Amino acid sequence: MRVHVVSDVHGRADALARAADGADALVCLGDLLLFIDYADHSQGIFPALFGAETATRLVRLRLARRFDEARLMAAELWASLDGDPADHIERLVRQQYAEIFAAMPTPAYITHGNVDVPRYWGDYVRRGHHVLDGQSVEIGGLRFGFVGGGLRTPYRTPNEIDDEEFARKVEAVGEVDVLCCHIPPAIPELLYDVVARRFERGSEATLEAIRRTQPRYALFGHVHQPLAARTRVGRTECLNVGHFRGRGVPFALEW
Predict the structure, then answer these.
(1) Which helix (H) or strand (E) holds 83?
(2) What class is the 2-33+105-254 domain?
(3) How much is the pLDDT for 235?
(4) Each residue of 32-56: pLDDT tens digit?
(5) Which of 154, 155, 170, 196 lies deepest, with the highest CB count within 10 Å?
(6) C-alpha span between 74 and 77 (Å, rounded)
């Protein structure tokens, strides 16, 4: 059995269409949308509305952790738009989701990332797309559990939830062979992004579940350039499957 795993697609519909080539199924760990590309500030929803130069200013404020200034700047920009800003965002979000789900291979087992807007997914999933969150499913004789979304951060991305809610989803998954989350377990070397030069948030509940139930694998994404892409917790191999927007290549899991 061969399953390809991707995370942090961020608009790469072109590469996603080929991501399951040679595999029996695709697993997608979320972050399908692109709001701002930190490598190319002309790409994403924000620059589509306000331009690349404005996006560069916002990125610099965020990288400097000047979050209050970034939020004030963004609020002024949203207020400058004609009509309701939510309508502009929804139009561009839906446009990206239409392209991404049209390209998504089948069968695919998909969970949400922290920048996703799950309430729109039902309009775009196709036959053979299985959206899972706090749930498990059998793939090729192994039990895969899925936990989507992210935890609260100063960035206030759209799909961040409280620690307690995240922990309930981890608990609902139970014992599995492969634990699939968007964010990593709370292990420092898995959380530090060497390019952004900051720690991302990881889940203590996921780490505790790994220690307690010892799945074969714990798979995740979220951290685009991690200090460490893999480590072991007991018998569990913890693996960052890679930044799919940047690499365009899936992680292959075989058994």
Answers:
(1) none
(2) alpha beta
(3) 98
(4) 999 999 889 999 999 999 999 999 9
(5) 170
(6) 5
